[in-house]
Amino acid sequence: MSELNSHKSCRVIAIANQKGGVGKTTTTVNLGIGLANEGKKVLLIDCDPQSDLTTCLGYPDADNLSVSISTMMERVIRNEELSPGDGILHHAEGVDLMPSNIELSAMEMSLVNAMSREFTLRTYVNEMKKNYDYVLIDCMPSLGMITINALAAADSVIIPVQAHYLPAKGMTQLIKTISKVKKQINPKLQVDGILLTLVDGRTTLAKTTADTLR
User: Fold this and answer.
1) Beta strand pairing status for 89-90 and 95-98?
2) What is the CATH number of the domain that holds 164?
3) C-alpha angle 160/24/18, rounded to 5°?
4) Which end of the chain is more exposed for a tag (fewer CB within 10 A), N or C?
């Protein structure tokens, strides 16, 4: 945590892995609340149409929210004015949330024909950065255009990985995608680290996977 706090300006971190069920949302929530407990202003952005982050923070009926991240991205595409506070939900644990809902699935399709499509989310995030110390983006379990947008907007990536062989093996594609985004879209992008989740240290498989990742 102390390393994360070493940056004075707003830092944008994407929590990414194309595999579901590896702890992306749990990592986003715990890291965000941990930073908030240290006095940091934190915005969590749900970039998954399944809305797990939104639900986790107490909004199970996400599809009925009037404003979501897809709303803000649509405004960017239409070159409409962005109001930084619009749609932000304030949580009792001290973090703010830009929620998501099923509309984000349609947004992924809309981005295909959008101008500067990789930078749509970054345009929104840049408007929000002045109000926060940290912006954490909970990515969907895919390497589609929304995740590319998250990587384009981020300063760095945290990769949650289960301590099992197959999820770790599948990480190769994610690393290739991050490298491609860094080379072609976002030169400042870096990997903060690989976070082992759901670890049972008693098993040989978990120990072997952890050693391999290290």
Assistant:
1) antiparallel
2) 3.40.50.300
3) 75
4) C
- What phi and psi, each to the nearest 5 degrees, are found at residue 27? -65, -45
Total tally of structural domains belonging to the chain? 1
Tell me the mean pLDDT in the region 177-187.
97
Instruction: Sort 24 into a burial class: Cβ within 10 Å, 0-12 / 13-18 / 19+.
Output: buried
Q: What is the mean pLDDT of residues 144-167?
A: 87
Alpha helix locations (H) across 43-164?
52-56, 69-77, 103-110, 120-128, 145-153
> Do the beta carbons of residue 42 and residue 95 sit within 8 Å?
yes
Q: Is residue 168 within 8 Å of residue 174, measured between CB atoms?
A: no
Percent of the chain at pLDDT above 90?
69
CA distance to 120, 161, 183, 194, per residue, from 174 (Å): 21, 11, 14, 12
Helix (H) / strand (E) containing 58: none
- Residues whose CB falls within 8 Å of the CB of residue 205, separated by 6 or more in sequence, listed in order: 163, 164, 165
β-strand partners of 45: 98, 137
Please give the structure tokens belonging to residue 31: 């890291």
Q: CA torsion, points 74, 76, 80, 86, in degrees to nearest 10?
A: 70
Q: What is the pTM of this model?
A: 0.87
Q: Quick one: which of 30, 87, 20, 22 has its CA closest to 56?
A: 30
Structural domain of 96? 4-213
